[in-house]
């Protein structure tokens, strides 16, 4: 209860402060709270800071010239909030669809920006996961993620520590091949994209987890075990607590499902 009250107070203070903040400073306030997204309140993860980040970025979008960087920052904040602090799938679907509509509207003007292609690949990917992989594949959503992911890879494959390789590698892994409809999913491409990212960004835990999944599926089980164990033995960065602890939990589940001992 105390944690909940503290969160409410922090959010209320953010809104009060916003009435006194010049429009040009909304983005910097959003940056401030986003950096604190993994900060504990009363000994537990709290949504207060990310709620404030979303709020200030939204104010910036309403009051400033829209830029790819601002859209990217808003996307990251919305994604963090609904990935880690919302369990209602219907709410999550609605929020990601609203985000997609905002990003798609801006896309013609910023089609060659790494920020917007990353944001759309991420948002469509999350939405596809929420409606189900098979349905997403049949409805063309997997194709949208592929389009934006490949464009990001072409523009800047090192953007956000090789995020394009992780998006495309996972996409080729989870997307089912559908005769005469969807023939491009390829496990070798999945391995190539993910191995490239892990080699260049060895601290990227999710890239290692996804690479392990792909290696297991192509029957390279020795290397798969190596990367699963690498995820499990890594130290969690407090600044990425929610992201990395979630990755570790997913790794535990995958290892248990496959009968892999730690």
Which percent range describes the beta-strand content?
under 5%
| Sheet/helix structural class | mainly alpha
Note the gap between the termini: 37 Å
Number of helices: 13
Order of strands, widest sheet: 1-2
Give the biggest beta sheet.
Answer: 2 strands, antiparallel
Helix/strand order, N-terminal first? HHEEHHHHHHHHHHH
Shape category: globular
Helix content: over 70%
The average pLDDT score comes to: 92
Low-confidence stretches: none
Radius of gyration: 19 Å
Number of strands: 2
Question: Which features would summarize this protein structure in a list?
Answer:
single chain; 262 residues; mainly alpha; two-stranded antiparallel sheet; 72% helix; globular
Written account of the structure:
There is one protein chain. The protein has about 260 residues and is mainly α. It is built from 13 helices and 2 strands; from the N terminus they run ααββααααααααααα. The radius of gyration is 19 Å and the shape is globular. The relative contact order is 0.07. The mean pLDDT is about 90.
């Amino acid at each position: 209860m105390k944690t909940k009250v503290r969160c409410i107070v922090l959010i209320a203070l953010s809104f009060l402060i916003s009435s006194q903040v010049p429009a040009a400073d909304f983005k910097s306030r959003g940056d401030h709270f986003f950096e604190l997204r993994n900060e504990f309140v009363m000994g537990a993860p709290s949504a207060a800071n990310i709620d404030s980040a979303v709020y200030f970025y939204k104010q910036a979008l309403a009051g400033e010239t829209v830029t790819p960087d601002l859209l990217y920052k808003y996307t990251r904040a919305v994604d963090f909030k609904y990935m880690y602090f919302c369990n209602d799938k219907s709410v999550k679907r609605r929020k990601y669809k609203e985000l997609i509509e905002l990003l798609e509207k801006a896309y013609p003007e910023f089609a060659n920006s790494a920020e917007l292609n990353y944001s759309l690949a991420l948002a469509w990917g999350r939405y596809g996961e929420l409606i189900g992989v098979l349905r997403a594949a049949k409805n063309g959503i997997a194709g949208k993620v592929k389009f934006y992911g490949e464009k990001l890879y072409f523009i800047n494959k090192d953007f956000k520590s090789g995020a394009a390789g992780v998006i495309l590698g996972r996409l080729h892994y989870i997307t089912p091949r559908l005769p005469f409809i969807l023939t491009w999913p390829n496990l070798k491409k999945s391995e190539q994209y993910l191995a490239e990212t892990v080699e260049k960004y060895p601290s990227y835990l999710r890239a290692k987890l996804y690479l392990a999944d792909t290696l297991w599926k192509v029957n390279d089980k020795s290397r798969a075990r190596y990367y699963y164990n690498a995820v499990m033995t890594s130290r969690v960065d407090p600044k990425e607590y929610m992201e990395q602890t979630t990755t570790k939990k997913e790794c535990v589940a995958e290892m248990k499902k496959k009968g892999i001992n730690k």
